[in-house]
Specification:
The chain contains five helices and no strands. It is mostly helical. Helix 1 packs across helix 2 and helix 1 packs across helix 4. 10% of the residues are buried.
Length: 143
């Protein structure tokens, strides 16, 4: 049950962060804003590591496969796409489309067993849920 609440918190934080980053971009520019986001995230993580952690930094070199280390680079892409989509679509439409895309891609990753994730069988009820979510996007966009 705690995972459910953490996921809700994650979605809420992503939406708030997207709005904040879009506003910062209006003053600083896209790449300055993106760099600030990544730097401030690093600073928070470093501080929390000093307070709570002490996991070995050298363990990063042992991560396999090495492409898994691209998460930070992907994070920069995420920040850029969130800023651009929220600026062009507004926070609600952008967040809705972002969540739908996350759901579809995550399900494809599970179906195909990509990136070390355990392969799951196709379940039509899940496909139906995604179709229903896409219908929701259409209704949300309807004028």
């Amino acid at each position: 049950m705690i995972g459910f609440f953490i996921a809700l918190l994650s979605g809420a934080l992503m939406s708030v962060q997207g709005v904040f980053n879009t506003q910062v971009t209006k003053t600083t520019g896209l790449w300055v804003s993106n760099a600030w986001v990544q730097f401030s995230a690093f600073a928070v993580c470093a501080a929390l590591w000093l307070i709570m952690g002490r996991d070995s930094i050298g363990a990063i070199a042992k991560v396999e496969p090495k492409y898994m280390l691209l998460g930070g680079a992907i994070g920069a892409g995420i920040t850029w796409t969130v800023i651009k989509s929220m600026d062009q679509l507004g926070p609600a439409k952008a967040a809705l489309l972002i969540v739908i895309a996350q759901l579809i891609v995550a399900y494809v990753i599970e179906l195909l067993g990509l990136f070390g994730v355990e392969k799951e069988p196709l379940e039509w009820r899940k496909v139906g849920g995604m179709v229903l979510a896409l219908i929701g996007v259409a209704i949300f966009q309807w004028k």
